[in-house]
Amino acid sequence: MTQLPARTEKKLGLVIDLDTCVGCHACVTACKGWNDANYGAPLSDQDAYGADPSGTFLNRVHSYEVQPGDAAAQIINFPRSCLHCEDAPCVTVCPTGASYKRSQDGIVLVNEDACIGCGLCAWACPYGARELDRAAGVMKKCTLCVDRIYNDNLPEADREPACVRTCPTHARHFGDLGDPDSDVSKLVAARGGYDLMPEQGTRPTNKYLPPRPKDRPAEISVLAPLLDVKATGLAGWLDRILEKL
Amino acid sequence: MHPAPSVIIFTVLSGLGFGLMFFLCLGVIRPLGLDALLMWGLAYGLALAGLVASTFHLGRPMRALRAFTQWRSSWLSREAWASAATLLMAAPLALAAILGGALPAVFGIVTALLCLATVLATSMIYTQIRAVPRWNHWTTPAQFFGFALTGGAILSGQNAAGAQLCVLLAGVIWLAWTIGDGRFAAHGATLKSATGLGGAGSLRQFAPPHTGSNYLLREMIHVVGRKHARRLRALALVCAAVLPAAMLLVLPAALPTTIAVAAIHVTGAFAARWLFFAEAEHVVGLYYGQRQLAATS
After folding, report:
1. Is residue B115 domain-shared with residue B228, that is, in the same domain?
2. B residues 14-53 near A, CB within 8 Å?
3. What CA–CA distance (Å, rounded) separates A9 from B162?
């Protein structure tokens, strides 16, 4: 059913810390690795070792340069994946009901057996979160590792999305953003987490934490006092004479 | 957006077919016998050819029938219902015209309205997409109605009405281009709103997320051919509306006129529809550094 649930019991999602992300792409690789073999059609590659490689990924890491007016430029690494929106436009446009949002936890999923691969959901998503798999002909998207987070066969530490589990700098956090007392909600409140493209009215569940303000180097070098040499003796007398001329 | 031939053929041909069917259902022209077979056959042929072409766009065309299930929320599903209902409802009208017979006038009016509903549903598939600001505007349904009715009037040999509709169509597509060019900026999405970065400073893409191509770049960040947009716009406007209007006013109402005008109009319609896709920018392009100059200045 492609009508959105009026409310969801939980709002599971990710919080991505742009301050600590180092742009290593480990989340991209972990995501690809897990989703190559588990839930749904495997993420395929075309011409993987050839001249024009291309493939399906559910997570991509961009790099942007911020140039403040009065300070040094900063590189920000920016992971981009499905935001599991509350008003997900990808769900309502689907003609077959393959695209749906779960009422229990808010995860947006694709029922690949019902997907006709029309691509309209990918058009409707402002964030480029959906990619049509060329081999399978069906739409692929982040499942929030629905086959990990509830999986009793995995050790408890592994019951979180592969991207979160693998992140070496803990720049990715997983939890219930609908519960104001959850760790992720507290993190968002403390760090000023924000929505991407709020003007699209999608009400994303995932939040991004802004980079912390950087320290500025002091105006005067710490070596400056050492450079302020006072001449003494004959040189000092010459210095004073020449100053007067 | 990628101007996929399947979708261009679908929207142009089915629009023409349902436009012609609208005038046939209303009884504006009343062909009988063999003439009716040809005219209704043309309308059905165009509409069906368009609908068949649309399935070539699917990754899994064998499951296309599932598209009938979500009419409550999806315009694509509503389009499937509207087109199927129109084609079924028009069948008795076509048979009555071909074999001789009469149906209540209200039946024709209802079916004519269904033709318009189908064109509206097709246009709403694009209009509803907020992520493509150029489409997300009333000019999109206006264009689709303009092309369907003008094409229908030309094909049904109504020279006077056709000429008037051509003038209207010229206005509609000119408005759609003029308003459309400012839609992305008016919508307000920038790399800064897309990433939340930059503050008062400037922001640019430093490195792309992948060195090869991907589905997003192929499907939604299509830029090929925009350099010819100006020339194509002139071609589309002249062929779809200006030249047909002049010919319909000057040439006598006869079959050769209809064929010549229709051929020119359809060429213009294809050019305009190609531009409709090729010129439409998706906001996801911002993440890939599209419109960077606009964002930093």
Report:
1. no
2. none
3. 57
- Residue B64 phi, psi dihedral angles, 5° rounding: -55, -30
Extract the residue ranges of chain B whose pLDDT is less than 70: 224-226, 292-297
Determine whether the interchain pair B284/A118 forms a contact, defined as Cβ–Cβ distance below 8 Å: no
Report pLDDT for A12.
Answer: 97
Is B55 within the bounds of a domain?
Answer: yes
Element spanning A230, H or E: none
Domain that holds residue B37: 1-128
Question: Shortest CB distance from B205 goes to which of A62, A92, A114?
Answer: A62
Chain B residues in contact with A66 (beta carbon < 8 A): 197-199, 201-203
pLDDT of residue B257: 93
pLDDT for B7: 93
E strands within chain A?
12-17, 45-46, 54-55, 59-67, 74-81, 99-101, 108-110, 131-132, 139-140, 172-176, 207-209
Q: Which two tokens stand for residue B86?
A: 């129109």
Task: Measure the N-to-C terminal CA separation of chain B; round to a whole number of Å.
Answer: 25
Q: What is the pLDDT of residues A213-242, one digit of tens each?
A: 888 777 777 777 777 777 788 888 898 888
Which residue in chain B is spatially nearest to A46 when comparing CA positions?
B214
Which among A18, A62, A92 has the least Cβ separation from residue B287?
Answer: A62
Q: What pLDDT is attached to residue B297?
A: 35
- The CATH classification number of A12-209 equals 3.30.70.20
Task: Give this prediction's pTM.
Answer: 0.90
State residue A164 phi and psi, 5-degree precision.
-70, -45
Give the distance from residue A125's alpha carbon to the nearest chain B alpha carbon, in angstroms. Answer: 7
Structure tokens at A191: 């760090």
Judge whether A123 and B129 are in contact, CB under 8 Å.
yes
**Last-in-domain residue among B75, B98, B128:** B128
Kindly state whether residues B9 and B78 are assigned to the same domain.
Answer: yes
- Is residue B200 in a domain? no
Measured CA to CA, the distance from residue B18 to residue B116 in angstroms comes to: 7
- Of B103, B128, B153, which marks where a domain is finished? B128
The continuous run of DSSP H or E covering B165 comes out as: helix B159-180
CA distance B167 to B53: 29
Q: What is the ipTM of this complex?
A: 0.92
Q: What residue has token string 């990710």?
A: A14
Q: Which of B269 and A69 is assigned the larger pLDDT?
A: B269
Stated length of chain B: 297
In A61-90, the residues whose Cβ lies within 8 Å of chain B are: 61-69, 75-76, 78, 80, 89
* B206 domain-assigned: no
Dihedral pair phi/psi, residue A31, rounded to 5°: -65, -50
By the 10 Å C-beta count (0-12 exposed, 13-18 middle, 19+ buried), A210 is classed as middle
3-state class (DSSP) for residue A74 = strand
B275 domain residue, yes or no: yes
Residues B163 and B250 occupy one common structural domain: yes
